[in-house]
Amino acid sequence: xxxxxKLIHIARKWQRQAAxxxxxxxxxSVSQVxxxxxxxxxxxxxxxxxxxxxxxxxxxxxxxxxxxxEEFGSPGDGPIILTCDSSLMEYVVHLIKRRIDRExxxxxxxxxxxxxxxxxLSSCLCQEQSSHKLLVCSF
Length: 139
Description:
Pfam family, one: Auxin_inducible
Low-confidence stretches: 116-133
Shape: elongated
Helix content: 40-55%
Number of strands: 4
Structural class: alpha+beta
Radius of gyration: 22 Å
Strand content: 15-25%
InterPro entries: SAUR_fam
Strand order of the largest sheet: 1-2
Number of helices: 4
C-alpha cells in the first residue's frame, strides 16, 4: 500500500505535468524551419505553406497578409496565419504562377472582401469568357 504522503507527491507531480501540457502551443507541430529565401504561413485550416520571398512582391499576397494582420493582429513570436483556407491558397498560388493581370488580382481581392475575408474555393469559380477574365463567387 502507498503511503498518503507518497500519493500526494505523485498527484502533485501529475498536476504539474498536466499544467505544462496545457500551456504548450499545439498549433503547428512541424519543427522544420523554412529554407533560406523562403517564409512560412499557415492557412485557417492549419495547412502549412512555404513560399519564396519573391511572393512578398505580389499585390494579392501582400493584401492577404494585410487581411490576416487585421483579423488576427501581428503574429509576434507565433506563426503567420492567413484568413483563407488551403484550397483558396493553392488557387492564389496557381494564379500568381500564371502571372495574372491587375484586373484579375482586383477581382480576386474584391471577392475576398465581399465575403468578410473568408471565401472557400468550392464556392469560387474562375471562368474565361473570350478575352475577358471573370471571377464569379456564389455564397
